[in-house]
Amino acid sequence: MSLTPSTMLELGTPAPDFLLLDTEGNHKGLSDFSNKPALLVAFICNHCPYVIHIADAFSAFANEYRSKGLGIVAISANDAANFADDGPEKMAQEVKTRGYTFPYL
Asked: What local confidence, expressed as pLDDT, does residue 4 receive?
C-alpha cells in the first residue's frame, strides 16, 4: 500500500478531467464517458492482493453492469519503474487474462 497522502474532494465535486493511455495505446479521458448515466472509476493494479482477490468477480460485475449502461474505467496509478508488474505490457496481459471489457489506463 502506498504511503502517499490523499486529498479528499468534497462529495458532489465533479470528477477531475484526465487523459491517459489505455492498454492499446489510445488516449481515454473523462469526456469519453459523457454519454453514460454514471461512471465507475476503479483504481487498481496488477500486484495488489486485494485486486487479485476480486479481479474475476470485478470483471463479471463490469460485464453485467456495462450492458446496463454503466461506464467503467480502471486506472493504475503505480509507477511502472518501481512496480514492473504494473507496466503497460503487463496491464494488457491482465486485460486479456481477466476478460476486462472496460479501458484499463
From this structure: 67
Question: Rounded to whole angstroms, how far apart are CA atoms 49 and 94?
Answer: 14
- 3-class secondary structure for the chain? CCCCCCCCCCCCCCCCCCEEECCCCCEEEHHHHCCCCCEEEEECCCCCHHHHHHHHHHHHHHHHHHCCCCEEEEECCCCCCCCHHHCHHHHHHHHHHHCCCCCEC
16, HSE (Cβ side, Cα atoms, 13 Å): 7
* All three cell numbers of 86: 504494473
Global pTM reads 0.87
Q: List all residues 6 or more positions away from 43 whose beta carbon is below 8 Å from its beta carbon.
A: 74, 75, 76, 77
